[in-house]
Amino acid sequence: MNTACKTPRPIAPFAVPSAGDVIASTGVVSLFHRINDTLRLWQSRIKMRRHLLELDDHLLADIGLDRVAAEREATKAFWRA
Predict the structure, then answer these.
(1) CA–CA gap between residue 33 and residue 51 (Å, rounded)
(2) Residues 6 or more apart in contact with residue 44 via CB below 8 angstroms
(3) C-alpha dihedral over 16, 20, 26, 31, to 10 degrees?
(4) DSSP state for residue 7 in the 8-state scheme
(5) In angstroms, how far is the first alpha carbon of the chain from the final one?
(6) Residue of 33 and 1 predicted with greater confidence
(7) Under a CB-based contact definition with an 8 Å cutoff, are residues 49 and 74 in contact?
(8) Per residue in 26-37, pLDDT tens?
(9) Is the whole-model pTM more than 0.70?
(10) Which residues contact 76 (CB under 8 A, 6 or more apart)?
(11) How far is CA 45 from the centre of its chain?
């Protein structure tokens, strides 16, 4: 029996993903990143708009807004820019 001709077996066999699998998985990962980014943006808008309502007229004037403009911005839906 000649053992020199046999190819060595890998210690831990594993599956090598095909190019299509890699592209599909990066697409899914990219989708999750975009969803996460969108949710964080919406959360940030909600928080900023709530804080805007808490500012007094003097602070609103410092950032170039009046009470009406602040209330208009604060009452926008979170998905609206």
Answers:
(1) 27
(2) none
(3) -140
(4) P
(5) 75
(6) 33
(7) yes
(8) 788 888 999 999
(9) no
(10) 49
(11) 14
CA dist., res. 71 & res. 46, Å (int): 13
- The residue type found at 62 is D
DSSP string across 26-67: HHHHHHHHHHHHHHHHHHHHHHHHHHHHHS-HHHHHHTT--H
Structure tokens at 45: 């808008």
Nearest to 71 by CA among 54, 62, 80, 59: 54
Token pair listed for 28: 């899914």
* Residue 70 neighbours by CB distance under 10 Å: 19
Q: What is d(CA 39, CA 5) in angstroms, rounded to the nearest whole number? A: 58
